[in-house]
Design brief:
five-stranded parallel beta sheet, globular, 2 domains, alpha/beta, Rossmann fold, 5 strands
């Protein structure tokens, strides 16, 4: 690593607890860029991606406030690889641009630091080469499904469609520098996070700059 910061990619799957682990890391001192937040920002009314989505998918994906209804749009694209790719081609370039802008802002303000980017589709989108470290938050598939059914009030069929749309977590773990399991107690998850954070700080201390 020739940079004076560590760029950490945090990923996992639907219901694995990425946000929980990312918050723990943020509480310990990691600077955070959340791609879910970026994804919401780039499709707000008035933005380029908003117009392209409405042009491509129709006004049926808008809610009563004329904003993108993420659940409705998700239903449409999760059942179609072609439509999902169309949506990704619209949103991903804008999300990536926002990411680089935020990263440069954090580096300018904080200097030597750990920056975590929370990215659901980090592996699938071919972004892993950008990161110094990759953390995968893992739970078994049956735990993912139960959490998804409870959290999003989905049918079995809808939950399965979402799980099928992502790479299995076991496969994602093969790309990880570190894996945190998140199916047990929050205390146990927190212990793993603290152990990982200590290692990151040691790595950061060894960097120049």
């Amino acid at each position: 690593m020739q940079d004076n910061y560590i760029l950490l990619g945090v990923t996992g799957g639907i219901g694995s607890g990425k946000s929980t682990v990312a918050k723990m890391l943020a509480d310990l001192g990691a600077q955070t860029i959340d791609f879910d937040i970026l994804a919401r920002e780039v499709v707000k009314p008035g933005r380029e991606a908003y117009k392209e989505i409405v042009d491509r998918f129709g006004e049926g994906v808008l809610d009563s406030n004329k904003e993108i209804d993420r659940k409705t749009l998700g239903e449409e694209v999760f059942n179609s690889t072609e439509k999902r790719r169309v949506l990704e081609n619209i949103t991903h370039p804008r999300i990536n641009r926002e990411f680089y802008q935020q990263l440069e802002s954090i580096r300018s303000e904080h200097g030597k630091c750990v920056v975590q980017a929370v990215i659901p589709l980090l592996i699938e989108s071919g972004m892993r080469e950008l990161f110094h470290r990759i953390l995968v938050v893992y739970v078994p598939r049956d735990v993912q499904k139960q959490r998804l059914l409870k959290r999003d009030d989905l049918s079995e069929e809808q939950a399965e469609a979402r799980l099928r749309s992502q790479m299995p977590l076991e496969e994602k773990c093969e790309y990880a520098h570190y894996v945190i399991t998140n199916q047990d107690s929050l205390d146990y998850t927190g212990k793993q996070v603290k152990d990982f954070w200590r290692q990151l700080l040691l790595d950061l201390e060894g960097l120049g700059g």
